[in-house]
Specification:
Low-confidence stretches: none
Number of helices: 26
Radius of gyration: 28 Å
Distance between the termini: 17 Å
Number of strands: 32
CATH class of one domain: Mainly Alpha
CATH superfamily of one domain: Peptidase M1, alanyl aminopeptidase, C-terminal domain
Mean pLDDT: 97
Largest sheet: 8 strands, mixed
Structural class: alpha+beta
CATH topology of one domain: Zincin-like fold
């Protein structure tokens, strides 16, 4: 294939033609939809002159007619093809009417206008609007939109778009129409349309200024009873945003629609959010506690975009983290305020370390604000979202909550209704925060994860503790030499009795050079520093703590995150020792000190059970591998299982007692306490299940058979899927028989089978691709089965014979013909190939080259695969 063109930030320039108003009409009929767009356009004379041609982005569809200023143009008077629409000459100000013919039923990319089951819907971010009509499809073109939808009244009784409903009525032949107008200017990526036979639930929210906002959540009729948690979450988000940030919703109607076929989690289209049904539909029978928390978080995220993304949007796509990083920070704060802040922070950091840190170290490494891209879809990454949110969190720490709120107010005061840049955002943070953030901006422009090495020295005569920090970032494809970053270190000193003795005004240290030493006086001997509390910066931390000191911090540090982190570091240290022994063919053992620390934590009745379940969970194999330069797949698998089994054997009765104690909670309650008890109970059951003994297996089977909620049922199902192929297969049949009617629950069924570490899993995954309930056209099904196998099943994907690699390469090639976004995301499973042995690297390289040889390969997959091969 021809090498695709790279788009560079340095080449950005304002648009030559500005669209002030967009009037759209969708005439929906079987097998085709006619789209009429009427655009009010004027030349931007800062860029254009009288001879400048109009060039719009255009998808692969037929243009029926073009009318410019009332004159019908002949086909030879405009150009259409190759991804663009062109008029050689135009007036300075004019109207342009284009009629396009779309076939949404055939659109498997799930971009632009497509059909999900019997429902028409749109997805326009990042560059999907061009698949609907020719348009300057860029975020800095902000216009006022109206939308008329015409369709059969029986098939599509519900017709929705952005803004306010201003007109509706019946037409001939059982057809009807609606007209929506959005009073706010918006970029094309926020346009939305839905047409279908849908039910809805209705509620209201009264804003702080006394306005009543109608709230509607739509879904297919059979799922309408699963929408109430989403509605509750929406009202919580609206109330929280008013209290925390003073931001009130600006329309009189807010609508959410649940769609089965969706590439991402959800989309924040102004006033009409379109959601993957996974993040709307829930009740305790079909959804896990994690599902409920995820729905709350995603509902909040898309609602918060109304201001951070919609009211203030992006100058260009390179600024994506300006809306996504900021909004992720907001949704994390929302979830933290409503639930457990410590547990939420642990979940976020585990996600960051497990996915974003490897991204920083892989071939797709890029700054939070990238310098270039081939396909923008590939930059909806952990770096832009999660690392981007960490940058906002660091600013928040550096200037404090009060000044941060002042800065956010100033941000909207200055830029409401505008398309802006990261520099604009940093500018208001500096202005309101009274802090020079010039060095801090390097976090946005420099790629890679900093490593901070920490060393201590203590002078007993002077009672002085000196702590030296040294920061380093490895060179990569983006920068050969990295500059020191401005790194906030949330800090404390803990004495040997567990008391916080931090000197006043020293709770936040700021690293600004490559090496810095801080000296603290009047510090008792054997005191320990508590570093990067609440994970105050997205860095890799190397300390000189002994295992005994880590065990002390695990038990005594007042900071929940650091207690968890100390436990995880203890686990990693122990796993490294065990894995080294496996590689040397030595006898295996587990440190008594680790068992002692684990037991002490397990029996602490004053600890939040949700936190305890996080702290006592072993790192996953996909996390453990990140601690090795050369990944030994089988040693990691064997070592983790050995450690888990030894802990379970030595603490078996304590796990049994905890299971009995935690089982007393209300199985249908969604309170923090009930969820926490379930998490600790199921962790204990997982430890016992790994023993694969008759009594422990029977215990798991009993919990599976008597489960009264999906959290407990799926937890037991996962454990059974690891014990023995026959036991797994019996559970598989039983689960399917019970839940075959529910699409979202079946996604869990696929995922459990794909994630099993038992032999023959690859053959089972291959057979499930042919299952009648699996569809390669549905992203949720692909993520549940194929993604789960490639991204999470470390032992089976990385089979030494390469069968796992060949299978996934086949799926990437097949998917790319259907949905290039989903195919590209799957391709990233090969990004860490340099960290495996030569035999595996040779096979992976061959499969990547095979993918790259496909003549019809999309730009999305080309970018990921070619980078991996560099």
């Amino acid at each position: 294939m021809e090498e695709p063109k790279t788009i560079y930030l340095k080449d950005y320039k304002p648009a030559e033609f500005i669209v002030d108003r967009v009037d759209l009409t969708f005439d929906i009929k079987d097998n085709q939809t006619k789209v009429t767009s009427i655009l009010n356009i004027h030349k931007n004379f800062d860029i254009a002159d009288k001879n400048t041609s109009l060039v719009f982005d255009k998808g692969d569809f037929e243009i029926s007619s073009v009318i410019a200023n009332g004159m019908l143009l002949l086909p030879e008077e405009y150009e259409s093809g190759g991804g663009y629409f062109k008029l050689a000459r135009t007036p300075d100000i004019f109207d342009l009417e284009i009629i396009s013919i779309l076939k949404p039923e055939e659109n498997t990319s799930l971009e632009g206008l497509y059909k999900s089951g019997d429902i028409f819907c749109t997805q326009c971010e990042a560059q999907g609007f061009r698949k609907i009509t020719p348009f300057p499809d860029r975020p800095d073109i902000m216009a006022v939109y109206s939308c008329t939808i015409i369709a059969d009244k029986t098939q599509y009784p519900v017709l929705l778009s952005n803004g306010n409903l201003v007109d509706s009525g019946d037409l001939d032949n059982n057809r009807h129409f609606v007209r929506w107008e959005d009073p706010f200017k918006k970029p094309s990526y926020l346009f939305a349309l839905v047409a279908g036979d849908l039910e809805h639930i209705h509620d209201q929210f009264t804003t702080k200024s006394g306005r009543n906002v109608d709230l509607k959540i739509y879904s297919e009729r059979e799922n309408i009873d699963k929408c109430y948690h989403a509605m509750k979450s929406l009202k919580q988000a609206m109330e929280w945003d008013e209290k925390r940030f003073g931001l009130e919703y600006d329309l009189d109607l807010y609508q959410i629609v649940a769609i089965n076929d969706f590439n991402a989690g959800a989309m924040e289209n102004k006033g009409l959010n379109i959601f993957n049904s996974k993040y709307v539909l829930a009740n305790p029978e079909t959804a896990t506690d994690e599902d409920f928390l995820n729905i709350q978080g995603v509902i909040g995220h898309e609602y918060f975009h109304n201001w951070t993304g919609n009211r203030v949007t992006l100058k260009n796509w390179f600024q994506l983290s300006l809306k996504e990083g900021l909004t992720v920070f907001r949704d994390q704060e929302f979830s933290s305020d409503l639930n457990s802040r410590g547990v939420k922070r642990i979940s976020c950091v585990r996600n960051l370390r497990g996915s974003q840190f490897p991204e920083d170290a892989g071939p797709m490494t890029h700054p939070v604000r990238p310098d270039s891209y081939i396909k923008m879809d590939n930059f909806y990454t952990m770096t832009v979202y999660e690392k981007g949110s960490e940058l906002i969190r660091m600013i928040h720490q550096l200037i404090g909550e009060k000044k941060f709120r002042k800065a956010i107010d100033l941000y909207f005061e200055k830029f409401d209704g505008m398309a802006v840049t990261i520099e604009d955002f940093i500018g208001v943070m500096e202005e309101a925060g009274g802090l020079d953030l010039n060095q801090f901006k390097l976090w946005y422009f420099q790629s890679g994860t900093p490593t901070v090495k920490v060393e201590r020295s203590y002078n007993p005569d002077l009672k002085q503790l000196a702590i030296t920090f040294e920061q380093h970032i490895a060179p990569d494809r983006n920068q050969s030499k990295k500059k020191p970053l401005h790194i906030p270190v949330k800090f404390a000193i803990i004495d040997n009795k567990g008391n916080d003795i931090t000197p006043e005004s020293k709770s936040l240290l700021e690293l600004t050079s490559g090496r810095q030493t801080f000296v603290f006086g009047n510090i008792p001997e054997n005191s320990l520093p508590s570093l990067f509390r609440q994970f105050s910066a997205p860095v890799k931390i190397k300390t000189d703590f002994t295992n005994e000191e880590l065990a002390f911090l695990m038990a005594n540090d007042p900071d929940e995150f650091n207690r968890w982190d100390a436990a995880q570091t203890l686990f990693v240290n122990e796993l490294k020792r065990i894995i080294t022994a496996i590689q040397a063919d030595k006898e295996l053992s587990v440190s008594p000190n680790l068992i002692k620390a684990f037991k002490k934590a397990l029996l602490n009745q004053h600890t939040d059970h949700a936190f305890l379940a996080k702290a006592l969970s072993l790192p996953m194999e996909t996390e453990i591998k990140n601690h090795f330069d050369l990944v030994d797949v089988h040693a990691i698998h064997r070592g983790r299982l050995f450690l888990k089994q030894q802990i379970a054997k030595q603490l078996k009765q304590h796990f049994m007692d905890l299971i009995d104690y935690c089982s007393k909670s209300d199985p249908l309650s969604l309170s923090h306490g009930a969820m926490a008890d379930r998490s600790l109970k199921n962790l204990s059951l997982s430890y016992l299940g790994c023993l694969k003994e008759t009594d422990t297996t029977q215990l798991v089977l009993r919990h599976y058979a008597t489960a009264k909620n999906m959290t407990d049922e799926i937890a037991a199902f996962k454990i059974l899927s690891e014990i023995h192929p026959d036991i797994k297969q019996t559970a598989v049949k039983n689960f399917y028989s019970k839940w075959q009617h529910d699409k979202l629950v079946l996604d869990k069924w696929f995922a459990v089978q794909a994630g099993s570490s038992l032999p023959n899993t690859l053959n089972i995954v291959k057979s499930l691709i042919k299952h009648p309930d699996f569809s390669i056209k549905n992203p949720n099904k692909v993520r549940s089965l194929i993604y789960m196998f490639a991204m999470q099943n470390h032992i089976n994907f990385h089979q030494k014979n390469g069968d796992g690699y060949r299978f996934i390469a086949d799926q990437i090639i097949a998917l790319d013909k259907i949905n290039h976004q989903i195919a590209a995301r799957l391709s990233s499973c090969f990004n860490q190939m340099k960290r495996y042995d030569n035999a595996r690297k040779i096979i992976i390289k061959k499969e990547l080259e095979r993918i790259l040889c496909v003549p019809t390969l999309s730009k999305n997959v080309y970018e990921i695969v070619s980078r991996a091969l560099e």
